[in-house]
């Protein structure tokens, strides 16, 4: 299931990146395009990270990844989603949730590090 979710994330990242490059370019401001690009970059990085976690869960099944995976996935939704929404011209106030998404992604990676340290012992 984790690999399938990761693959869906990667497919959406490609679609959204293509939309930004081809569909938004003529209509968006420089700032909106920058938000879209940042969202797409982070979407790709973290989707690849989720795929790595999914593979890791197959290689080391004892290593707990569920909490990390969920935090990162929710973080993608909030961080990237809020930037995408702002880039589409919707209220900039939604940018207030962008840092929450970033914090969730960071927490996911830190929990993975913690669990990896525990597993290594």
TrEMBL record:
Superkingdom classification of source: Bacteria
Q: Where are the transmembrane segments?
A: 42-60, 67-90, 96-117
Principal location class: membrane
Would you tell me the Gene Ontology cellular component terms? membrane
Which keywords, in A-to-Z order, does the entry hold?
Membrane, Transmembrane, Transmembrane helix
Show the coiled coil region(s).
none
Q: Provide the topology term for how it sits in the membrane.
A: Multi-pass membrane protein
- Compartments in which it is found: Membrane
Q: Which family does it belong to?
A: Belongs to the UPF0382 family.
Give the protein's recorded name.
Answer: DUF423 domain-containing protein
Q: Which organism is it from?
A: Acinetobacter amyesii
């Amino acid at each position: 299931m984790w690999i399938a979710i990761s693959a869906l994330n990667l497919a959406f990242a490609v679609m959204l990146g293509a939309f930004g490059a081809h569909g938004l370019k003529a209509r968006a401001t420089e700032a909106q395009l920058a938000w879209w690009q940042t969202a797409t970059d982070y979407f790709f990085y973290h989707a690849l990270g989720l795929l790595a976690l999914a593979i890791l869960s197959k290689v080391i099944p004892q290593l707990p990844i569920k909490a990390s995976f969920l935090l990162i996935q929710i973080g993608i939704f909030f961080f990237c989603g809020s930037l995408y929404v702002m880039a589409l011209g919707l209220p900039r106030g939604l940018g207030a949730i962008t840092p929450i998404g970033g914090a969730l992604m960071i927490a996911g990676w830190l929990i993975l590090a913690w669990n990896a340290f525990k597993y290594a012992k």
